[in-house]
Amino acid sequence: MRIAIVDPEICTPDKCSFECHNFCPKVRAGAKETVQLKDNLSVIDEELCIGCGICAAKCPFGAIKIINLPEMKENPLHQYGQNAFRVFNFPQPKRGSVVGLLGPNGIGKTTILHVLNGTIRPNLGKEEATDQDIFQRFRGTETQNYFKTLFATGLKVAYKPQYVDDIPKVFKGNVQELLKNVDERGAFEEVTKSMDITPILNSNIAHISGGELQKVAIAATLLKDADYYFFDEPTSFLDVKERLRIATLIRERADKGKGVFVVEHDLVVLDYLADIVHIMYGTPGVYGVVSTPLSTKDGINTYLKGYLRTENIRFRDYEIKFMTKPATKSVQKHTLLAWDDGEKHFDLFSLTITSGTAHEEEVIGIVGANGTGKTTFVNILAGEIKADKGNFDKKARVSYKPQHLPRDEQNVFSFLSSHIKLNSSSFKTINQHLNIERLYERTISQLSGGELQQVHIALTLCADADVYLLDEPSAYLDVEQRINVAKAIKSVLQLNAKTAFIVDHDLLFLHYLSDKAMAFLGEPGRKTKTHGPSPVADAMNAFLAQVGITFRQEDTTKRPRANKLDSVKDREQKKSGHYFID
Fold first, then answer.
1. In 3-state terms, what secondary structure has residue 252?
2. DSSP symbols for 294-353
């Protein structure tokens, strides 16, 4: 089976010499229809294509991908058009369970959710599929009954989209008005209290933070009286305690006999929440395949190993090992940044900072609940905010990536080249890990959240600075991209003898990346203090002790796993004071 993909955002025949057509062996042999120009876009006939890949190699824009696959047992579940992305197989809907979809960005997870919730009607790889075509495809299965009910509009669904930024554009008013408008279960008081939304009920939707907007979107989904609930990346910008609290609330919907599907890249949350997992593999932007169901533990471990034993498929040529951090030298490093005990006071909030230092090639992870002053501390280091008390090194040059990223109408190449040197050793190192070059022709405003994140990480790490401050760099990135970002950060620090502070809520990511860590403790939004920099396990333990969550090591991969609240292991670790087992 052969797949030919032409990216319409990059393919610009009026700026090239039609190399894909002119160099094609089949075209040269007389089969002119193998590669044609239609509507100012190259179109490749997959039946005639021999899969040589010459067109992909010759395309000056990198707009073409040719993939040779073993013959699939069935046609795609859905295909977005000729020479466009397609997805194979389908997860079986199951009431009373939480089904997790795990895979890289661009592999079709959101497409699957859209098929499940009725937003996309599967075409089975054709221009259009009839109801009977779809029923015949899934005959004799629960999926057939699911589609029959869905198409008859007898199935009620609730969907939390991946990106919540557009909510203020479609709804004007305060949080309370929005949630009461969608409350079909009469659970407004229960849900808003459980999710700690009560303090912002009178706030205008347009004025709340990204994390608060995420919670509002989840609450709006949970308040609907649906048969199936779909959550696309529900934990972005939420702290660890909020993530596990929301996982519990989502879990309750399944316990009531509802069906739940979740797309999530935070493996701690997915592990805590899901009953079964479908791995999705393939080539991002080209095709995706849904695996058979696996238990959550086996599914996550299989994904980390990169080998799907049940289907004899190796979908990655390396294993992801969270317990193995990028190597650091054990010699004493030069101090790049030092700060004294300090304080910062606002009208309703105060932060007490303990003294500390940061050294060459050192990554300091920052953990803490939302509202504990992590971003305030980062802004003090960056010189964006002045501390009320304490001496903070003004000599260190700081490069800062904020949590919320601006968009631009330039293409990626113009945007980056106007700020940094693309021929620098730093950018070449980053590009090896993140492949930023693939995005050069794309417009900044049209990038996905993950693509925009990677561009701004590259921009930050290539700046001429001593200290790099990155606020939530894992947001919208998949598991593999998070590991690649960690490797890029470490590589740049070692190349240039610099230091970095990383604020993030993905504890696996921070555990993998950090040499030391700081914990922000106290009462969020009122009065907090810093702990550390100290060994990673110490800072994690201090933070988790405050939020009342314990982590153990998974036997096979040694990855941290959250214990169920009040489980035997949870009680044992709390009694011993070991909230984080490294």
1. helix
2. EEHHHHHHHHHHTEEGGGTEE--SS---TTSPPP---SPPPEEEEE-SEEEE-SS-EEEE
Give 523's DSSP letter: E
CA–CA dist 468, 493 (Å, integer): 9
Residue 89 reports pLDDT greater than 90: yes
Q: Do domains 2-71 and 86-156+226-310 have the same CATH topology?
A: no
CATH of 86-156+226-310, one of 3.40.190.10, 3.40.50.1110, 3.40.50.300, 2.170.120.20: 3.40.50.300
CA distance 506 to 173: 32
* pLDDT, position 64: 96
Question: Rounded distance, CA 216 to CA 229, Å?
Answer: 15
> In a 3-state reduction of DSSP, which class is residue 54?
helix
The tokens 């949350």 sit on which residue?
269
Look up the pTM and report it: 0.89
Helices and strands per DSSP (H, E), number in the chain? 21, 27
* Residue 294 bridge partners (DSSP): 277
**Superfamily of the domain at 335-535:** P-loop containing nucleotide triphosphate hydrolases (3.40.50.300)
